[in-house]
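Example is below:
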Amino acid sequence: MKALITGASSGLGAQMAVELSNLGYDLILVARRKTRLESLKKSLPTKVEIIPLDLGSTFNCMKLYEQVKTEDIDIVINNAGFGMVGEFVDTNLDRELDMIDLNIKTVHTLTKCFLKSFVEKDKGYILNVASSAAFQPGPLMATYYATKSYVYAMTMALYEELRREHSHVYVGCLCPGPVDTEFNKVAKVEFSIPGLSCEYASHYAIKKMFQRKLVIIPGFQMKAVYHLSKFVPRKLKLRMTYRIQKKKLG
């Protein structure tokens, strides 16, 4: 049994590596930070291959796939991504385009490549990490929310295509709310509600993936917000989201 995880050097990616290794899965861990990957590798009980690689380009995504396509991979977790906060007119365009490349193009490319392989053998799991941000527009984090909406919408569409073909391949979308990871530091935000522990969110995500849950939302609070938000008028929801995002600026 073998799993590939991107963005595996910290946060949810690293902790999901721990979860799967404890379940007996050999791992292929991909991230930019080689030292972090090496440290994680030493702590895991199963066989681990590390691939230090910046996945923010389609070329590197294809390079990764070509490197591992002959491996008998059972699970792919597309976790690499980052966010940023600020007024759209003020945020750095180059940084936003980097975000679009990593949060959208990388997930799209790796999902397409591995899904073809999984469909051919009629088995495998693909878990795309989105966010609770996927469910609505996000003033002050406009680009980040939009990227996660793309991941969510694409995953939903693939699920239906696979269902109609009676495929045994699983695709699902992890949509957590705040989790205690390095995301806050990178995005330069402070969440207004307490984050879930990374250990809990990762354990829940892996458990629900194996139960073939389509949309995985860790934590009762975020599940309640998700369902209640369906009854809130769109413009009111935008105002509420803006206020929440404003608080993140500390």
